[in-house]
Amino acid sequence: MLMFSKAGIESFNGTRQLLALFLSFGVLFAAATDTTPAEDTRNPYKPRIIRDTYGVPHIIGKTSADVGYGLGRAQCEDRAVDVVYNLHAGSGRLAELAGEQYLDSDREARLLRNTRQAKRDWPKLSPGLRRLVEGYVHGVNDWLAAHSDAIPVKVQPFTPIDVIAWHRKVMMLSTVTIATADGSRAVGESHPGTPPGQSNSWVVSGRKSITGRPLLLIDPHWPITGHLQLYESRLKGGRLDAWGFTLVGTPLIGLGATPAAAWTFTAGGADSSDAYALRVNPDNPNQYEWDGKYVPMEVSEETLRYRDGETIKEVAETFRYTRHGPVAANKQGELYAGRHGNWNHALAMEQFWRMNTARNTVEFKAALAMDRLSYFNVLWATTEGHIGYVQTGEVPQRSTTYDWEKRVPGWTSKSFLEGNIPFAQLPQVEDPPTHFLQNCNVAANVITPGLDFTKADFPPGALYGHYGAYRARGQRATSLLSGAAKLDLGSAGKIAFDTYVPPADIWIPIIVQSVNETSDNPRTVMKATRILEEWDRHADANSAGATIFRFWRMACDDLKDTRAGRDAFHVDNNRKLRGKSLIALNRAVVDLKNRYGRIDVPWGQIKRHQRGSQEWPLSGDGLGRLGMDTLRATTGVKFSNDNKLINRGGQSTVALVFLGKEPQIHAVVAFGQSNVPDSPHYSDQAPLFVNGQLRPVQWNAE
Description:
Penicillin amidase (Acylase) alpha subunit, N-terminal domain, alpha+beta, disordered N terminus, about 30% helix, 6-stranded antiparallel β-sheet, 26 strands, Penicillin Amidohydrolase, domain 1, 3 domains, Glutamine Phosphoribosylpyrophosphate, subunit 1, domain 1
């Protein structure tokens, strides 16, 4: 029986493994030199592809089909492996491309019926969107046909259904993860809360912006390599006039700006997933109990294919469904049915199309109200001067009889109500008197000061993500934005790349007190304490205080039965807590000495940004292993063999959008536009990124 994967539908490292496999075939990638496609009277698509100084493609055409075609070619030029990976992943065909190890990913995609739902909903999509997608797959197919050495195995031409299936798969990542976590708990077991997401966003009205128009920060904390790495582009043709970041394998801006609006997302939306415990007929595995009777499941048989060397082999799979949704098994082998947002449609891309093509505030809000997205915090602004937030998610109608943060009985109609709650019942805020909104993975009730609503004011599950949780980044953003006035590029950029460590305000006084209460501390511990006392509490690359505090937090994480070092709004400063804090400081000092031979190690000597053979010192830190949770949320949890923390994700694509007649945009990505190692745009943005600098984005290619 299928088990949903713990961290979502597939690993972020998938394309790294696939690239290694491709390179084992002896295939090397040449730097792309194509720009505008050569004139071909048989080709109906006529895009212009103009790359700027950093290789970002500006794709211009008369129609959306032209734009799609050009983007398909451009994505292949820069990220061919990722394009091929993703367009196989959505439809559950990765294993036939790259081997048996991808069968689990294919099983999930087939169980979720991505292709089936995409085929059903394809006719419902707007004509302009269908033309965009059709052009995109033609661009991909033509590029792959012209570069037959780019992929070492024969790839069948893709169809628009592959694009919709892949987009649907990504849109269901969070909802499947939540249902999987619910499914692993026994009926009635308490809910441990949602895992901490990682992304930053904020928006200010014209009252706080130097331009007199809204200003939006886009800062998703996302993989900086691999198949989910975002792709920057400027699209103009037909109804499309947009800039921003797309998922590779799709042709629409996911986070970005148009002349009318700008928007971004963070993780932590409404609860659009449930797990239903099942009572299966012991004499018939294809039946489950429903209101005192056994009723049939829907059963489908599918054949999955996988590559074994040069041979394609097949394996038969059985997938089961109840009225709740697809049937899976937890690690204990217990069956449950998942009810997922996005399950009954493949229309999320239609919502993005309408957001991309909205001409004013009314049209943009109407696009949001489609409510085809799950588990996202959406921050938005319009050129007309409005700013807003919604904790979006396709929230099921739920009875108040049950606690929906626990696994619920799937054998009674009392626990299953048809349909979703209306969009208007989701938590949302527009044009607050504070003139700013932030969501750095905080709950909807703390996105700006002065809100007084609680969970009880909404239907079950509507106010959900990160409710009641401590978020240092959210507190820091609120503090900085509350005091901000007339933000320009410089002052806004300082907030976007801020490295202040809020947890240090709580814990350093306790550490110092614990040391002062003890008379026989080692000299290294006393030195570490002085460094912490003198530290400005910024996790900058040259900071030794940041290093000691980070190692202290890691040592606290290894201690049992203590709140020392843990995230909290307030702590009970007692003798036991101080004793544990001192133990952790001693351990941190020993760890530093053992690894580096000294304790005053600059943070950037440890936290590194790496691309191929190039490496740079990096500032900031994320949440993992009790990291420092700065607004500059760079990652690094596992030490390399030479005792470095290599950045793998977190802050990855940063942009500041000043809305106006034409958006004024400044942006940077972690490495560069291309994943081709000998491309000039393989790592040309990395020096800007590590220094917290943004480059200007040209809106008009001319």
